[in-house]
Amino acid sequence: MFREVVLGLGDNPVVEGVLKRYGMQLGASRFVAGSTLPEAIEHIRRINKRGIKVTLDHLGEFVRQEAEAVDAKESYLAMLDAIHQSGVDANVSLKLSMMGLDLSRDLAKTNVAQIVQKAAEYQSFVRIDMEDSAHTQSTLELYEELHREYPQHVGVVLQAYLYRTMDDLRRLSTPNSNFRIVKGAYMEPVAVAFPSKADVDENYVRLVQESLRLGNYTAVATHDEHLIGRVLKYVYENGVPKDQFEFQMLYGVRFNLIESLAQQGFTTRIYVPYGRDWYAYYVRRVAERPANLLFFARALIDRT
C-alpha cells in the first residue's frame, strides 16, 4: 500500500512541482550524484577508493522529440569519454525510452548501437535498463540484436516481479550473457507481475540461481541482506567462482553493506545516477522503502 500511495503521489503535478523545486535540498541529493558529469566523476573517484566499481546513469526517460534522444545519445558518448579519460572504474547504464524507443525503434537502436560501439572501443560495457512492462518485449528484442554484434559489451536488466522473467532468462542465456537481476520498481498489474513481496523475493532467488547455473555473469542487485545470504549460500554450496557474479546496490542506500561485501573479496558495484531529470527516479526510490520517506521528512524538518 505504501508503495502504491507514493507512486500515485508522484504523478500529482503539485507534488512534482514542489519536489522539482526543492527536492535536491530536501534529500534527493542522497540518491543522485549531482547534476553534471564532472560532479558524477568525482563521486565515482570516492567510491572507487573504497574498492567498489560503479555503473553510471544519466537520468532521463520517455523523451518526446528525436532531438532529445540524439542529445541523450551524445551525453552517453561523453560519459564514456570521461570515464576513459579519467581512469575511473565504471561502465554505463541507460534507458531505451531516453534513446527514443517510444518515438521509433530504429531511432533507439541507432542511438544505442553507437553507444555500445564506443564502449567496445574502450573495452567498456553498457547495461540496458528495464522499464515498465509495456517496454519489456521491445527492450529484450533490441538487447538481443545488440548482443549478437557486441556480446561482451552489452547486458540487460531482468525484473523478478514479472511472471515472464524466468522464461526470458532461459531463452536469453547464450555465451557471454550478462544480466542484472532486480526486483522491479514500477507499478504493474497483477496480470503481469507477482503482487506479493514474498513471491517476488522467492522468484528473485530462483532467477539468480538459474542464471548462475546457466553460466551467465550475474549482477545480484539488491539491498536485502536475507536474499544476499541465500545467494551466498548457493554460491558456496555449488562452487560458483567469484568472477561469475557481483553484488550491486544503489547510490545512497546501505553503503556499509556493499563495502562489507567488497572487503570480503566480492566484486561490488554501485549504480550512480546523475543529471537534472531526477524526479521520476527519486519517487521510485522513496516508494521502495518507508525509511527513504523518513529521510526526506527529516531533511524537511531540518530546513524549517
Automatic annotation (TrEMBL):
The biological pathway it contributes to is: Amino-acid degradation; L-proline degradation into L-glutamate; L-glutamate from L-proline: step 1/2
A Pfam short name: Pro_dh
**GO biological-process terms attached to the record:** L-proline catabolic process to L-glutamate
Catalytic reaction(s) noted: L-proline + a quinone = (S)-1-pyrroline-5-carboxylate + a quinol + H(+)
Cofactor field: FAD
- What UniProt keywords are attached to this protein's entry? FAD, Flavoprotein, Nucleotide-binding, Oxidoreductase, Proline metabolism
This chain belongs to the protein called proline dehydrogenase
- This chain's source organism reads Sulfobacillus acidophilus
